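Entry type: protein chain
Record version: 2
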Amino acid sequence: MKIAGKAVLIHPPTISEACLRHSKDFIKAEGLFITVQDKGNNGSIDGVWIAVVTDGSRILSHCDLGVNGISMVIFEKSGLYITEKLTGEFLMEMACTFPKALVRLEDFSSGHAFSYLSRFRARLPLIDDDSQGTGAVVLAGLPPAGRLSSLTPKDHRFLFCGAGSGGVGVAKQVLVFCTLKGLSTEETRSRIWLVDSKGLVYQGREGVADYKQHYAGPPVTDLHIVRFIKPTALIGFSVKGGFTETVIRRMASQTLRPIIFPLSNTSQLSYGGSVISASGSHFQAEGFGGRQWEPGQANNMYIFPYRSSRGADRGLSLGTIPCRAPSFTDSMVVASALGLTESLACDERSLEFIHPRIARYRDVSARVAVRVIRTAHSGTGVDRSTDLRQNAQLLEFIERCGGPDDTPKLTSINN
């Protein structure tokens, strides 16, 4: 099966259903389970280059699924389920025993994800799927979407529907990106708004979590959020009330070509007309205005390692591991986004795509890896592989590391 067909099977909504049914459809043990009985023994794990880890505390839109969350990381072929009480110990052991290994946090709850990133990202290559991976994919879509809408970064107003680790994390990446484009931090922050389960996040509202406070706007004077903010971009991590026809029509009446990113893995919502859209789920092409429109998919497969049954690693794994980066910086996240943006082919641009086709996954993710490596050894100076700095054929090298069966030869890039 081609990669575009596989993506439908291994990504939402299919993987969501697999998580819900894991304990009922259990066939055999896969992945690695770390429980409280393993306390003090996490250092005995060996042979790790990439670890995709979850505590099951926020699997997709289903909240805490506990041990069933292992299904979310099994398809990565490097999955670990770990109880919440041992995550800190596990990450400490990874930093000490496997400092070169890439650790990806998958579907941790908001408080957990931000806490572990803050504590451990300087000690090992640690990346969070929801905030940094999704953030990079969103960032990659903004420049092409901006060209289609004729809006510059200073013209945008971003409304995030959902203020968990995904919403707040992506808001942070948008802030970093806009400041690189010349806006001040305060200018950018004033253009970012969050909506959580209790409504708009604003200054003085009771019960706002600390990690949301940085994006709390001034007190609301209009109860109609879209009318009050006049967002040019709506980025969603929750579908409850956020992506109604009324909301979309209101945005279209205020902005010539609004940007709509429903990333909450819905399989039921779709939009046409003037909207510039990319979703977290796969949709078939639809006819509108006398032509066929191929819906965009903002898929983390370009950014994070996808591991097939043969062990394929691309994107950030082949960007971080070869250059032996001891940590993963914000500028490397932006680099992965720019690598994805620059990978748009001419025909994709002419068809108003804002992300490349999934079928080009292998080529695109290799280019993402090159961008990450170049940033690691130029702007941030965190790489330890000095030989790659002089490699003029870095893209060809990365592609060779994948091999003809898309299996990376890790021994050749980590000795």
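Comment: The CA atoms of residues 28 and 280 lie 29 Å apart.
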